[in-house]
Write a structure and sequence with these properties.
Layout (H helix, E strand, L loop, with lengths): L32 H9 L5 H6 L2 H5 L6 H13 L9 H8 L10 H6 L11 H10 L12 E6 L6 H10 L7 E5 L2 H7 L1 H4 L4 E7 L3 H6 L6 H22 L2 E4 L3 E3 L13 E3 L2 H7 L3 E6 L4 E8 L7 E7 L2 E3 L5
Parallel strand pairs: 1-2, 1-3, 3-4
Antiparallel strand pairs: 5-6, 7-8, 8-9, 9-10
Helix pairs in contact: 7-8, 12-13
Length: about 325
């Protein structure tokens, strides 16, 4: 589950605060300020990130020997009592911290067992949730900031404003970035360490990989890099209590089996690597008239079912609200 790398602060009374331990804390356990600065230069800003960083990567930092890396890891473990195996009860307490963000449609929320906690998408859903994530919890929001990585050039600030007006306000803090998504993800570590962010949107996750790696000869390299990116996104979701919403593209494959492709011969890009990294997967398709249908394809806690929604000026909504 990856729960062993989640720091719970040792208190247990506060489910929202105290989960993130700043990397500066290891200085009290014999680690020098110069070494901490080198870790920060590698976008390692918290103890949990340090524990999840491989020894091989740490050894690439100038001046870091095997002995020093081992000492730094030991210092980090002292600050993280949940490092290693934890009980199911402890994991249950950690899971209670997970924020829930409404999709904007009550039908879709119900299909997802009460709002989005993980990944699903397309651009209109991404825009709507980017606004809702900043709203109070009683309005289905998460009272946090949003980071939006736009790889297709489809992010529209004016669209965000239209959706915000539906909820009676303006967007407060939304950061939009395009391309170089691996570097951008690592660069967001310092922002996420402030514990102010609750939603990370990646729209779309496969766009740049499909253009940077072409042909079957580069497929293995692409999947390896993609897997590393997805692993880092998953670690950030668990460490910083983030919802991660990733949209994806579909591709034509007339020879694909029914197991991996729809009736129209299309299947999601990214293959097994992306499918296994995603917790909840939604397939969005056009329904009757203006309606759209979201089908839960795979989820550990939601049964396979469908929900109908529409796209309005105010974003995703229920059909009867049109």
């Amino acid at each position: 589950m990856g729960g062993g790398s989640v720091y719970n602060g040792g208190g247990g009374d506060d489910e929202e605060e105290g989960n993130i331990v700043d990397i500066e804390e290891i200085q009290a356990h014999g680690i020098g300020a110069a070494d901490i600065s080198k870790l920060k230069a590698q976008n390692i800003h918290t103890v949990a990130t340090l524990l999840s960083t491989t020894t091989r990567r740490l050894l690439k930092i100038k001046g870091f020997s095997e002995i020093k890396v081992e000492k730094i890891k030991e210092a980090a473990k002292k600050l993280s009592p949940t490092a290693g195996f934890i009980t199911a009860a402890e994991l249950g307490q950690i899971r209670k911290r997970c924020v829930r963000i409404s999709t904007g449609s009550k039908q879709l929320d119900a299909a997802l067992n009460g709002q989005v906690k993980t990944r699903c998408g397309k651009t209109q859903l991404a825009h709507t949730m980017s606004v809702i994530a900043q709203l109070p919890k009683e309005m289905g929001g998460a009272e946090g900031k949003v980071a939006y990585i736009d790889t297709e050039g489809t992010f529209r600030p004016e669209r965000i404003q239209e959706i915000a007006e539906r909820f009676g306000g303006k967007q407060r803090s939304l950061e939009d970035n395009t391309s170089m998504q691996t570097e951008l993800l690592e660069g967001l570590a310092a922002n996420f360490a402030t514990n102010e962010y609750r939603l990370l949107v990646i729209d779309s996750v496969m766009s740049l990989y499909r253009t940077d790696y072409s042909g079957r000869g580069e497929l293995a390299d692409r999947q390896q890099v993609l897997g590393q990116f997805l692993r880092r996104a998953t670690q950030m979701a668990e460490e910083f209590n983030l919802c991660v919403l990733m949209t994806n593209q579909v591709m034509s494959d007339p020879g694909a089996s029914a197991l991996f492709a729809g009736a129209d011969g299309r299947k999601p890009a990214g293959g097994h690597i992306l499918a296994h990294a995603s917790t909840t997967r939604l397939l969005l398709r056009k329904g009757r008239g203006e309606e759209r249908v979201a089908k839960i394809v795979d989820s550990p806690d939601c049964p396979e079912r469908e929900a109908t929604y529409i796209i309005t000026t105010g974003g995703i909504n229920d059909p009867e609200k049109a």
